Each structure stands twice: as C-alpha cells, then as structure tokens.
C-alpha cells in the first residue's frame, strides 16, 4: 500500500469496499466475509438506502482525532458550522492532554468561517490570514489545516497556499484533506488524518545520527528499541485504558509508546524507534501501519481489540509471539483470568440472563458483546456504524451469535428505534452522544465508551460489569421518560421491517 504520493487518502468505499447499509444476521455477515463479500453477486460495497435520516461526516471525525494532538493549532477551513463538534472536544481533550503533560494547552481551534461571498470569491485570503494569525498569536509547533466541503467544491488551492506559507511561519503546517462529501464511510477520516501525519510528522529523529558506533550507548539504544512497541490508541480510549494496557505489556517485559492521540509532533519521530506497531482497532489503524511497514520496515499487528477477556488474552499472546515471550504472557493471562473470574461472580448474579443490544463502531460492539456473554447475558442485536474486513477476528470470541440481528448503519436512528421496539432488550450499550431517542424506549443505557472510564484489558471487563450492574438496577430516569414522552416516529413505522429502506445488495 502506498498512497502517499496522492494529495489525500482514498475513500474507504474504494480502498476497503466498506459498507454502510445492511440488515441481516451475523451469520450472513460472516458468510459474506468468507466468500469475499466485497465483490461479485451479493456485494455489499455501495449498498445504500432509499431513505436516509442522518449520516456521518469524515470532517467531524477527523477533528475528533486532530483536537487531541498537543502543541498544535487546528484551523478549520470551512463554514463555521462544520466545526461545531469541536465544542464537545474542548473540555475533555484539555483534561486528557494534561494527564500526559500538566503544562499542555487545551484545544486551540480557529475557523476561517467561509460564507456565501467566499463561495464566489474563494477562501484563499481567509486561509492565509488564519494561518499567519495562528503562528503569530499562539506560536505552536504545528498548524493543522483541516478542510471541509466548501473549499474543495470551490477549488481553493490549499496545498499550494500552505506550501507557500510554510516558508513564512515558525510552525510547520499540516494539511488534512477531509471534506465530508467525498465519502459515505465516516471512518475514511482515520486515513485522512494518518495521511497528513505520515507526510509531515513521521520522519527519522535526528538524534540517532549522533550516536557513535559501535559503543555501549548504541547497544543500549538497540536493546531499548527491541523491547518497545507503539500501541496505536484511539480517541474513544481513556487514560485508564492506556494505563491498563501499559501494565499488561510491561508485565511481559515490553515498553509502550502511545500514538497518535494526545501525542505531540516529535512523538511520531521517536515512534520509528520501535520494534512493533500494535493496533487497538484495525478499522482505525490499517492505513498507518501498512505505510510504516512499507516505508520504514516496522512490522505491525492488526488483529483483535483488547476488550473482553478472550480478546485481551488473544491480543497479549499475539504481541508476545512476536517477541518470543509466550511463556511470560501465558503466566500473566492465567493469573489475570483467575482474579477476574472471582471478581465477576457478584455481577453475574444480577446480570445473568438479561438481554442486550449493542450499537456503535463495528469492532467495539462485537468485542464488548464478549464481556456480556462472560456475564451470562444474551446478546440479541447489533447496530454497527459500518462494516469491513476488520470485524472478522472479533467474532471468534463470541458463542451462538449466528442468528443475532445486525444492522449496519451510520446513525440512522429510525432503524435503531424500530429494532429496539421489536427486540425489547433489557439494556442498550451504545455509542455516546446520540441516545436521546433510545432513552425514550425506557431501557437502561450504558455508554459504549467514555473518557473517564476503563473498558479495555482485564480491569476493563470488571469496570464494564460494575457499571452495567448499576445502570440495570436503577434506570428510573429513562423509565419516566418513556412514560411522559413520545417516540418521534409514527406508529406505522414500528409495524414495518426495520430494514425496509435498505436496497437489496444483490441488486446493487
Ligand atoms: S459534510 Fe461537508 S459541509 Fe457538512 S459538516 Fe461535513 S465538511 Fe461540513
């Protein structure tokens, strides 16, 4: 894979044949993966809906990652509304940045505020002014320019302007081409961000040139690199998640560097001094690790996500195999499983037999279902933002899942509401920020992730069980909501098949 000569990353519909419209069972999805579902009859690629209620935008998801970077100013080259999501990021990101560096700035973001007149005259003047202002006012190490649909549609020559400004600013300038209209698969944002990072941030650190060889310092340096792994964190991880994964990898003798979220520019340079890139989530990272392998020959691991006991066992073992540390890993896994099993017992008594529906990113929901099965719960439905090949290994940890319904939909709350009404789960575990309609169904809801909570590793299993136990026992607020508010869709919709508006993929 090498797309770095291109101006921007390709859309995931093209590169991965990812899908955003499907309704069926997990067995259907698994069979399509086995049969090479991304081509030929029954192809899910480019499947669509006759009616669509809401969809994701890669610009907003790109900002969710870019806003985590330290020593950077973010310029949104777009109308002001495109960046509204950044308001949500400000508080949390400042806190999480300061957990890594107490002196870190919060999120600094500017908008070029493009309007109707700029659509006619062009947005180039505003972009130049914003970049020079950011450099003068904030003195950042990096200025990141993310562009929305408007400058792409009116043809602003962003790369030429930024190349020209690069010579005039103390900060280095990183263009991120993430216009929303380019893709229906929101996860293209990960590639758009990594594309910019790979082109501007990732380069061999200078300091290694100064180490004389052969000498003891050089040997020590090589030893350190041979024990170091980059763990590619995701924006939905908490600091507790990172500390748990660090604890587990330290226990088998490895050091850990976390990138890209909350990293600063030089962290990407030193990330080349590692022996293995370890993905938390293939959907998030494949573009980055493939390019690092191609360009710098650093091997990578893209497999499962360490959420749930079996997934965590597998994630640790796969990493350990690369270093020949299987024995250490097996000892650790045995001990952790024993401790975890004992600690889950009280929660199993409350939660066993309860049914659950999970909604959110494909990798996270399937992995989190493993925790529920571990607690004796019954998984009765999924709604995944999208679907691609990285879902495959995550199914391995689940049992009796073939008949479970899965809806592939980025947002589309009307489909989820129909499914919840039909399946009547005892609890919903869902992506944060869009559960207002679901709450009106009167069911308890546990967020699928959260910046203050631990979901990953063995301690994550315990924490999910503990919090699930609390929300299932007390969800008075949602009960009252269902009694005193109405669902926003007509009764007739609830009589219809939830997948009515998905076009038959075979006919695509
Ligand atoms: S789709 Fe385009 S116009 Fe809409 S928020 Fe995304 S970048 Fe802005």
UniProtKB/TrEMBL annotation:
Coiled coil: none annotated. SUPFAM superfamilies: Helical backbone' metal receptor (SSF53807). Pfam families: Oxidored_nitro. GO terms for molecular function: oxidoreductase activity. Gene3D superfamilies: Nitrogenase MoFe cofactor biosynthesis protein NifE, C-terminal (3.40.50.12380), Nitrogenase molybdenum iron protein domain (3.40.50.1980). Residues 57-470 form the Nitrogenase/oxidoreductase component domain. InterPro entries: Nase/OxRdtase_comp1 (IPR000510), NifE-like (IPR049939). This is Nitrogenase. It comes from Clostridium thermosuccinogenes.
